[in-house]
Design brief:
The protein is of the alpha/beta class. It has two domains: 79 residues, Orthogonal Bundle (Muramoyl-pentapeptide Carboxypeptidase, domain 1), CATH 1.10.101; 154 residues, Peptidoglycan recognition protein-like (Lysozyme-like, 3-Layer(aba) Sandwich), CATH 3.40.80.10. It is 36% helix and 12% strand. The chain has ten helices and ten strands. The strands form three sheets. Strands 1-5-4-9-3-10 form a six-stranded mixed beta sheet. The protein has a two-stranded antiparallel ribbon with strand order 2-6. Strands 7-8 form a two-stranded antiparallel sheet. Helix 8 packs across helix 10. The longest helix has 18 residues. The chain is elongated and about 65 Å long. The termini are far apart.
Length: 275
């Protein structure tokens, strides 16, 4: 009985397919940080190797161990993708990694620069702490409960107040930055996002708008213009979905505890300006 051997071409094709299947690299589940180890970390390292953020030599020195080199690679990737450079592999970093693996060149590329950040006035507040690795995926709008920007700014910078926000937009459109984006400001209190209890402060940027919140005091043209520029920049920089640009009233628990940014705030104008 004669046996028909496969042709060389068929053998090469089969071998190529097997190799391709074996070298398929995907993004691991989110939730990895320095000190972790195991196959998920190795999967992350393989993805970073494919994208050029780690070398084979670096991976071989600690396969499956989330050490200093892996953390540095994650931070570099986050920086290139305009994400907070925490070194923590969270949901937003995972999403960016998936996109990068789905057809991106194997070397880091220069990402599109987010919309220009409007001019801000530095007014540091001590009222902040660590995000503990949480990715920014939400923007929360507030009213200051007064029409006196100077007094509002002073209160949020007072250590005794226990409150702060990342930004404050005054009546004249001037934007003050009290807390760096990488820090957790104290603005949302007990809260939930889309009905799910969560630490909104840890995952959000808080913006205070100088307004008494009565629904009778109009927000100024200058405020809408500044707020649109700032929100557009933050939305693009942190890839915040439109549904996560909310008011304090939308996240405060229990429902009805807050009415921010105010009943007369023109949400449609803001959303049209940043869409």
């Amino acid at each position: 009985m004669s046996v028909r051997l496969p042709s060389a071409t068929a053998t090469r094709t089969t071998s190529t397919k097997a190799t391709a299947a074996a070298t398929t690299v995907t993004a691991p589940p989110a939730g990895l940080r320095k000190g972790d180890s195991g196959p998920k970390v190795k999967q992350l390292q393989d993805a970073l190797l494919k994208l050029g953020y780690l070398t084979k030599a670096q991976v071989n020195t600690g396969p499956g161990t989330f050490g200093a080199q892996t953390e540095a690679a994650v931070k570099k990737f986050q920086g290139d993708k305009k994400l907070p450079t925490t070194g923590y592999y969270g949901e937003q970093t995972q999403a960016a990694l998936k996109k990068a693996l789905a057809g991106t060149p194997t070397t880091p590329t220069t990402p599109t620069t987010p919309g220009t950040k409007p001019a801000v006035i530095s007014a540091p507040s001590p009222n902040s702490d660590s995000r503990n690795g949480a990715d920014i995926d939400t923007i929360v709008m507030h009213h200051t409960a007064s029409n006196d920007g100077k007094a509002d700014l002073s209160w949020m910078r007072n250590p005794k107040s226990g409150v702060s926000a990342h930004y404050m937009v005054d009546r004249d459109g001037k934007i003050y930055q009290l807390v760096g984006d990488d820090k957790r400001a104290w603005h949302a209190g007990k809260s939930e996002l889309h009905g799910v209890p969560t630490d909104v402060n840890a995952r959000s940027i808080g913006i205070e708008i100088v307004n008494d919140g009565s629904g009778k005091t109009p927000f100024t043209e200058a405020q809408y213009k500044a707020l649109t520029q700032l929100t557009s920049h933050l939305k693009e920089k942190y890839d915040v979905p439109m549904k996560n640009i909310v008011g304090h009233a939308d996240v405060a628990v229990p429902k009805g505890r807050k009415n921010d940014p105010a009943p007369n705030f023109d949400w449609s104008r803001l959303r049209k300006g940043i869409s």
